[in-house]
Write a structure and sequence with these properties.
CATH superfamily of the domain at 28-73 and 156-312 in chain A: ApbE-like domains
Low-confidence stretches of chain A: none
Radius of gyration of chain B: 23 Å
Distance between the termini of chain A: 71 Å
Helix content of chain B: 10-25%
Mean pLDDT of chain B: 82
Strand content of chain B: 35-45%
Number of strands of chain A: 15
Mean pLDDT of chain A: 91
Order of helices and strands of chain B: HHEHEHEEEEHEEEEEEHEEE
Number of helices of chain A: 8
Distance between the termini of chain B: 45 Å
Oligomer: heterodimer
Strand order of the largest sheet of chain B: 3-2-4-7-1-5-6
Strand content of chain A: 25-35%
Amino acid sequence: MTPLLAKRKFFIFIFSALSIINCRDREKWNTYSLFFFDTVCDIQVYCLPSQVEPGQKEISRIFTEIENKFSPGREDFSSPPVIELFHIALRVYRDSGGCFDITVAPLAELWGFSTKSYRVPFPEEVKLALALVGMEKIKEERGRLSVQPGMELDWGGIAKGWAVDLAARALRESGITRGFINCGGDLYCWGNNPEESAWKIGIKHPRQKGYIGVVSVSDMAVATSGDYQRYFESGGVRYHHIFNPKTGYPSQNKQSVTIVGPEAVYCDALSTAIFVSPQPGVIIKKYPEYGAILIESNGNIVILGKAYPVELF
Amino acid sequence: MDRRDFLKVIFSSSLLTPLIASLKAQDSSLVIYIISDEPQNFLPSIIEELKRKAWVQEGRFALLNQHPFGEDLKRALSQSGWRYVSKPSASSLLLSFEPLHRAASPSFTLIREGRIWDIRTRKLSRLWKEMNSRGETSICLTVASFEERPFTSIPGQSVAIYADGRKRESFSLRKNQMRQFTTRNGQVVIGIEGGRARVLSSTCRHKICLSSPPAFLAGERIVCAPNQFLLEIEGPRFVDTITG
């Protein structure tokens, strides 16, 4: 082999090797699903192939920790995450006049939502269960929560949103600049979508297939509470899982509430609070960075709070 | 021709004013403006790209006025699955012709809800370059205005199966069949019939997946969380993700 040919071959080899390395290390869109919180968590991120597995592991670690601490029946009343989330829940409880309440577990149990053995309870039973409801009954002393006998905490209306925030923060801190995490409708999206524009979030139609509208946002969280997510029918009446903590009955005047704002944990809790409240405007005013899309029981759509780009059909 | 020049050429045509006003009156949310003596060679490709992204769906088209390349356009669009109708009111795509006051380089622009719509796809970019590279100028402006169907769901073409967080396979919704999948936690049997997919049996406890209605629209899902099983209808999507 002549020196010139050898030199040429050497450069071809170097060029090929660099191309392979370059291809392997190029950022691209990666999509995967994880099963947590009794639902599917969809993750779509724009990152290097080498970032996919660590990201997936970190999300699984965060979600497992949240599940371990906040799943029904867990009695952790003192660990720092529990106390931190309790304070967030307490703020929304107070701001919503008690419409969001993490102590509704006895009601969910009475109506059969925790065992999926649904039934309409007698009014006396509801009254008895209500005696165990109310966040003001929770005492916080020396970094520990204490509840009255028979009371139980139900973190279902807030923990998923918090988990989404923590996971999205972890991915962003690891250098991932674009993506979304969506756990059963509680989501956070950041950066641009694959078409280089804001993320298009379809809002599920509460009564039929398809969407009622689309919100276009980036670096924002979205969450929805709806009467169609978990329900049973008895005597032609739909009884769903979002209870009015004051009456003990499922809240009846809305079909769904979608909240858009900077943190999924607040979107999650506010969607329940506003679903239940007869005065949603009063609540949303206390959260100036948040906007709400309400679908009332007659199908009317009402938009409250901060205006985000939303296209309704 | 860059976009600013393109718009200058279009809006300098006084003839266009009534046309634009009438388009507005019809509430046309998506309009394609093409300057070219061969619109029949470009319009179907642009529409095909919009269709691929599910922004438009093929249907019926009509001509609003005499078009010098009307017959060619009819032929080209018919070959792409569009049906010509004479009544503009019965169509979802209206084509019209306007002569420009001065000849301009061939090009196209999309206007959506009164604003320039910048779609950066490889195919459209290639098409734009191809039109511009031809050199010759044209006074023929073709305006294609759509009755847009944004963000509605359309039937999907195939069903994807995810088990234990990974995609197992994808198969057509056209063939009626029954399939069984084993996951880490159990078994799920699904059935495809008449383009719809549903779960027929599952080893999970509460059988919520069994009571899920059949899925057939692009993006629809049936989830069996205990079995870590997910069935998703594949097809053009209008949204990135869903809340609710």
